[in-house]
Design the sequence.
C-alpha cells in the first residue's frame, strides 16, 4: 500500500509539473507514451492466450492515432477530427494486417493475429485518443487542458477511493469471479470521492474552466464517469484473468504496468468526450 501511495504521488507530481511547463504538448506526449506502453502490455497478454499480434506495427499506429490529430492541427493550422483520423488509421491497419497475415502467420493463428492486433488498437489508443479530442474541443487551450485533467482525476480518484473505502468497510463482493477484492461499498465510496474531487477541481480552477462548469455540474457529471471507470477497471481484470496474469507489468512499483495505470481511463475517455460536448 505504501509503495502504491508513493507511486501515485510521484506520478501526479510528474504529470502536473509537465503540464505546468509544457501545457497540452506534455499531455499529448504522455498520453501517446502511455497508450503505446498499454498496447504493448495488452499484446503480451494476448500472446499468453495463444495469439500472435503484429506488435510493433500496432504500437506505431497507436502513436499516430493518439498524437497525429493534435500535431497535424498544430503544424498545419487546420482542425483534424480525431475520430475521423483514428478510424482511417484503424482501417489501414486492418488492411495491412490482413495482407501480412497471409505470409507471416500459420493458418492456426491467422484469425487470432488479426483479432488481437486490431482489437488492441480499437480498445486502447482509439479509446484514449478521445482525451486528445478533449484537448482540441475549442480554441480555449487552458480550459481544454483543465477539462482533460479533470476527467483523469475523476477516473483515477475513483480508483483510489474505491480501494480505500473497500479496505475500510468493504463487505459485499462486487464481482467475485472477476476481481475478488472489489466490493459494492468500495465502488460506492469511489463514486462519492470522484464526485467530490470533480467538484473541488471545478471550484478551485474555476478561472480555467468554462463558466457553465460549476462545482455542482462537475459533481453530477463525475458520477457516470466514475461508474464507467469502475467498469473499465473490471474489463482489464477480465483480460488479465483470461491470460492468467496477476499484473500486466512491473513498470510502476505498487501499481503494476501501464495497463494498470490506464485501465479506468480506457472506457471513460470517450464517454467524457461526448458528455463534455454539451458543456459550453
Sequence:
Amino acid at each position: 500500500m505504501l509503495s502504491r501511495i508513493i507511486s501515485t504521488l510521484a506520478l501526479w507530481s510528474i504529470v502536473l509539473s509537465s503540464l505546468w511547463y509544457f501545457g497540452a504538448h506534455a499531455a499529448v506526449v504522455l498520453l501517446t507514451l502511455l497508450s503505446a506502453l498499454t498496447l504493448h502490455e495488452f499484446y503480451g497478454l494476448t500472446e499468453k492466450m495463444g495469439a500472435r499480434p503484429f506488435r510493433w506495427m500496432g504500437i506505431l499506429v497507436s502513436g499516430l492515432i493518439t498524437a497525429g490529430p493534435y500535431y497535424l492541427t498544430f503544424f498545419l493550422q487546420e482542425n483534424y477530427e480525431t475520430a475521423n483520423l483514428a478510424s482511417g488509421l484503424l482501417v489501414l491497419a486492418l488492411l495491412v494486417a490482413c495482407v501480412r497475415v497471409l505470409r507471416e502467420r500459420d493458418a492456426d493463428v491467422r484469425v487470432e493475429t488479426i483479432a488481437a492486433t486490431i482489437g488492441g488498437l480499437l480498445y486502447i489508443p482509439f479509446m484514449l485518443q478521445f482525451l486528445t479530442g478533449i484537448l482540441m474541443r475549442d480554441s480555449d487551450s487552458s480550459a481544454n487542458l483543465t477539462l482533460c485533467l479533470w476527467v483523469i482525476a475523476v477516473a483515477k480518484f475513483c480508483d483510489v477511493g474505491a480501494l480505500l473505502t473497500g479496505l475500510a468497510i468493504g463487505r459485499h463482493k462486487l464481482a467475485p469471479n472477476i476481481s475478488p477484492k472489489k466490493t459494492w461499498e468500495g465502488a460506492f465510496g469511489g463514486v462519492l470521492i470522484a464526485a467530490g474531487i470533480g467538484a473541488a477541481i471545478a471550484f478551485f480552477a474555476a478561472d480555467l474552466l468554462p463558466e457553465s462548469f460549476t462545482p455542482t455540474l462537475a459533481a453530477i457529471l463525475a458520477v457516470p464517469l466514475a461508474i464507467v471507470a469502475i467498469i473499465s477497471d473490471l474489463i482489464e481484470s477480465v483480460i488479465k484473468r483470461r491470460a492468467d496474469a496477476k499484473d500486466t507489468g512491473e513498470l510502476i512499483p505498487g501499481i503494476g504496468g501501464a495497463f494498470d495505470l490506464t485501465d479506468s481511463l480506457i472506457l471513460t475517455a470517450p464517454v467524457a468526450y461526448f458528455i463534455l460536448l454539451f458543456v459550453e
